[in-house]
Amino acid sequence: MITNAAPPRVTMVGNSLPNIPWEDRPAGSNEVLWRYSGNPIIRRNATPTSNSIFNSAAVTHDGKFAGVFRVDDTRRIMTLHTGRSDDGVNWNIEPNPIEWKFNDPELSEFAHRYDPRVVWLEDRYYVTWCNGYHGPTIGIGYTFDFNEYTFVENAFLPHNRNGVLFPRKINGKYAMFSRPSDTGHTPFGDIFYSQSPDMIHWGNHRLVMKPKGWRWESTKIGAGPIPIETSEGWLLIYHGVLTSCNGYVYSMGAALLDLDQPWKVIHRAAPYLMSPQMLYECVGDVPTWCFRARLCMTLTRDESQFITGQPTR
After folding, report:
1. Among 106, 168, 179, 181, which is most exposed with the fewest C-beta within 10 angstroms?
2. Which phi and psi (to 5°) does residue 280 adopt?
3. How far apart are CA 69 and CA 85, in angstroms?
4. Which CATH superfamily is 50-308 part of?
5. How far apart are CA 279 and CA 275, in angstroms?
6. pLDDT tens per residue, the chain (313 residues)?
7. Nearest to residue 85, comparing CAs of 70, 62, 66?
8. What is the pTM of this model?
9. In angstroms, what CA-CA distances link 195 with 107, 180, 201, 227, 262?
10. How, if at all, do strands 124-132 and 113-121 pair?
């Protein structure tokens, strides 16, 4: 039977964000996502001692924007810094790294901190990042105001990366994606789902997705920004890596996951959404990367808006 009925409208769960910056689709473009014409919006020398600035994790805060940024200084030490913006485009990055409060002095020892994510969950902003504690693991902390930060715990044993929290509890428990890895530039990686009653003890580990051979995501995959709840499932934006003759190529894709059992994949897009094609994506400390650690949305337009962050590589 042929019908002209419109497909069901997908709605997103969340508060409206009316001040999200927006630039219309370029003339002649048929891309799902398109780049802001003023990219990159954060320069590598945005602090007095920065060599490079990577992988922003930005959220709305008090009617403006705030976030956590990876900053590699001129000693090449990887640290996390606070950033603030009135409009989501023009950013001020704090020159000094975040100073964490620790209940356990053991947690103050670290080799590096990088690849942050930030999510509003219950009554505070939780931060996750790759924490160098006898190898890469996932650190968890929180802030109420982006002025003071408290370190909660390392979620897993080394070696693990790409810790991404869900914006609410699922079946009464906190939920997080991660990607078990190794000590180096990991040549493998699957996305896993874990649960916790208290943000400290994590278990109930489930496999979500694996790489797909001979495609843009054939080497490894990892969760990107915070998953977005929709009427049809959790929208996951993730990165996938292809090993080319010239090294790793990081692209961005999407999948839809079950609302109550997010380790079950409903749909997974075959093509990538975005790949490194612009000069600032193909040249830099880490070339050929499109790595998304933040994604903001607004529900006020007829078409859903997604704002992603592309760091200077």
Report:
1. 106
2. -70, -10
3. 13
4. Glycosyl hydrolase domain; family 43 (2.115.10.20)
5. 12
6. 445 556 667 888 888 777 888 899 999 999 988 999 998 889 899 999 999 998 789 999 999 999 999 999 999 999 999 999 999 999 999 999 999 999 999 888 888 999 999 999 999 999 999 999 999 999 999 999 999 999 999 999 999 999 999 999 999 999 999 999 988 778 899 999 999 999 999 999 999 999 999 999 999 999 999 999 999 999 999 999 999 988 899 999 999 999 999 999 999 999 999 998 888 888 877 665 565 544 544 333 334 444 444 444 4
7. 66
8. 0.90
9. 22, 15, 8, 15, 11
10. antiparallel
Every domain of the chain and the residues it spans: 50-308
